[in-house]
Structures are given as structure tokens and as C-alpha cells.
Design brief:
By secondary structure, the protein is α/β, with parallel strands linked by helices. The protein has one domain (5-313): Metal-dependent hydrolases (TIM Barrel), CATH 3.20.20.140. Helix content is 34%, strand content 13%. The protein has helices spanning 5-13, 69-77, 90-93, 98-106, 124-133, 162-174, 187-196, 215-222, 251-261, 283-291, 298-313; strands spanning 36-41, 81-87, 111-115, 136-141, 177-180, 202-204, 230-235, 266-269. Strands 1-2-3-4-5 form a five-stranded parallel β-sheet, sandwiched between helices. The chain is globular.
């Protein structure tokens, strides 16, 4: 069942460090940081005049019809989550990051942004610096499709493109995280790229989408732990195991990442609004990290729910 605007509130409520240089702050001067963080959510508006869809998309592709920043905050409030990292949603807006950047500007300190940039364009560092000045703390990349929905003609060698090499180089210089969304067979190519760019912060989305029980895929993911600047999101619980609440069956997957990366390189995230569909919910996903998983100490939980994402995405 797809989430609709009418049942959005019901779906949300039914479920009960050192700063980095290079970017301006995303919070007001003197504003204190507080609260746990959802390190991965998508948002979009139905104001298509102000925030037009890309030419490849239609309003029928907006499912739900809206998931605005205010709607996300309402869902977060049900679980006491106070901040979020907004991930640019390429299927709707491509490289036009206007909405997520506007959301961050309107609520400094509440939202940070992972934007998208066309690494094939000239003046890449200047464009990246401009996004950074507007509040972006990460750049999303992927091996198969560019944000304008054109196909990557050589996915196995996606990271060898000149523009991608420059993006990783400039991201390190500006302290912007590179955030790959990929399927597990591409993890070894990320490993090789991390060897070439050891100073670049890398955040792997959704456990690298590995299959639970696959020793080979687990090895592809955990071998990235040897790079001290690689982080992993424990996110999108809806995609793993039983694919429904209360997610206790994900304990082995979470422990796999925890044992390899430790709490200081893990961050929890929801992948809203998709986390609210098909027998899934928000609060059980939070509760697993807060109260479940007996191998986590209170310090570990605080790191995974707050401090890691704070350090990577809310520095200023």
C-alpha cells in the first residue's frame, strides 16, 4: 500500500565532536545542537511552479503526492527525532536541489542536505563550493544513472570517469561527503576509489544494499572499514529481512556493520517516506536502535543516533 497524504500522519504516529573546515555553518550563530538525527530522508513539494519536476517525471511519479519538510518533521516528532539529513530525490528533480536547500535555509540547524551535482560539467569545484555555501554537506552518486536519468554507459568503470575523479578530490578539499547509492557488486570499486582518495569522506547508503546471509557481499562491505573515512548508514530497514516491523531480525546485519566499523562510523536513518509503506513504520525503526540490540551500549546508541551524523553532516 502506497502512503498517501491523508494517511501520512497515521502512518507516522501508529508506531510507537570536532568540527570540519571548508563550509559555512548550517545553524544560526550561537544555536545549540541537540537531539537525535535521521540521517536519510527524501522530501518534495507539490508546488510544481516553484519546484518543477524534471522533464522525465510527471505528477503521477510523486508517491505520495507530497512529502514536505513539515510532513517529515511531524513523523519525526512521534519518535523524538529532532534533526534530519535531506537527500536530493533525483527521480523527481535531478540536479535541481532547490527544494532541499530551501528547507535547510528555512530551518538552520534542523536540516542538512545531501545534494546532487553533474560531475561532467566544467567548473566542478566552484559549483561544489556553491552547494556547500548553500548548506550541502554531501553529494549523492551512483553507478547506473546520472541525476538527469541518463544511463551511465560503463557502470563497472563508473568511478574512473574524469569528472568523478575530480569530484572525489574536490569533496575532500571542501569537506563534503561522497554518498554512494549502489548495489553490492559495486562496493569493490568504491574500495579502490577510497585507496586513491584517502582524505575523502564516504558514506555508504542502506548497508550497501547487501543481501543478508551473503558472505561475499558482507566481505565487500566490511572490507571498506579499513578506510578510516568510510561510514555506513544503518537505514531503510524496510528493504531487509522480513521487510516489516519490528525489525529484530536485522540484528545480525546491524552487528556485522557495528563489529567492522564501530559506532563512530555508523549512523541510523529512515529512508522516509518509503519507510512508511507496506507494513513498515518509523517508530519501530527508531526503537530498535534505542532499546533493542543488546550488543549496543548507551554510548553506542548515542553515536549511531546522533554523534556520527552530527559530525559528518552538521559541521560548520
Amino acid at each position: 500500500m502506497q502512503l498517501t497524504r491523508r494517511n501520512l500522519m497515521k502512518a507516522g504516529a501508529m508506531s510507537l565532536a570536532a568540527p570540519l573546515a571548508g563550509c559555512v555553518s548550517t545553524r544560526l550563530p550561537g544555536q545549540a545542537l541537540s537531539g537525535d538525527i535521521d540521517a536519510h530522508s527524501h522530501v518534495w513539494s507539490d508546488d510544481l511552479e516553484k519546484y518543477p519536476l524534471g522533464p522525465w517525471a510527471t505528477p503521477a511519479d510523486m508517491k505520495p503526492a507530497t512529502f514536505t519538510a513539515d510532513e517529515l518533521l511531524a513523523v519525526m516528532k512521534t519518535s523524538g527525532i529532532e534533526r534530519a539529513v535531506l537527500i536530493q530525490h533525483a527521480p523527481l528533480h535531478g540536479y535541481d536541489n532547490s527544494y532541499v536547500l530551501d528547507c535547510a535555509r528555512k530551518r538552520p540547524g534542523t536540516f542538512s542536505v545531501v545534494a546532487m551535482i553533474n560531475e561532467r560539467t566544467p567548473n566542478l569545484k566552484e559549483r561544489l563550493a556553491d552547494l556547500c555555501d548553500q548548506g550541502a554537506r554531501g553529494i549523492r552518486i551512483g553507478p547506473t544513472k546520472h541525476a538527469d536519468r541518463t544511463l551511465n554507459v560503463d557502470p563497472p568503470n563508473w568511478l574512473n570517469a574524469p569528472g568523478m575523479e575530480l569530484l572525489w578530490k574536490h569533496a575532500a578539499e571542501l569537506n563534503v561527503a561522497v554518498c554512494p547509492l549502489l548495489s553490492p557488486e559495486f562496493l569493490p570499486s568504491v574500495d579502490a576509489m577510497c585507496e586513491k582518495h584517502p582524505d575523502t569522506t564516504v558514506v555508504i547508503d542502506h548497508f550497501g544494499r547487501i543481501e543478508m546471509g551473503s558472505a561475499e557481499q558482507a566481505r565487500w562491505l566490511t572490507q571498506l572499514a579499513k578506510h578510516p573515512n568510510v561510514y555506513v548508514k544503518a537505514s531503510a530497514f524496510r528493504n531487509f529481512g522480513d521487510k516489516r516491523a519490528p525489525y529484530g531480525d536485522l540484528a545480525p546485519l546491524i552487528k556485522l556493520v557495528f563489529d567492522a566499523f564501530g559506532p563512530s562510523r555508523m549512523m541510523w536513518a529512515s529512508d522516509c517516506p518509503y519507510q512508511l509503506n507496506d507494513g513498515n513504520n518509523y517508530t519501530d525503526a527508531v526503537a530498535l536502535m534505542r532499546d533493542g540490540l543488546d550488543f549496543l551500549s548507551d554510548h553506542d546508541r548515542r553515536a549511531i543516533l546522533r554523534y556520527t551524523a552530527e559530525r559528518v553532516f552538521f559541521h560548520g
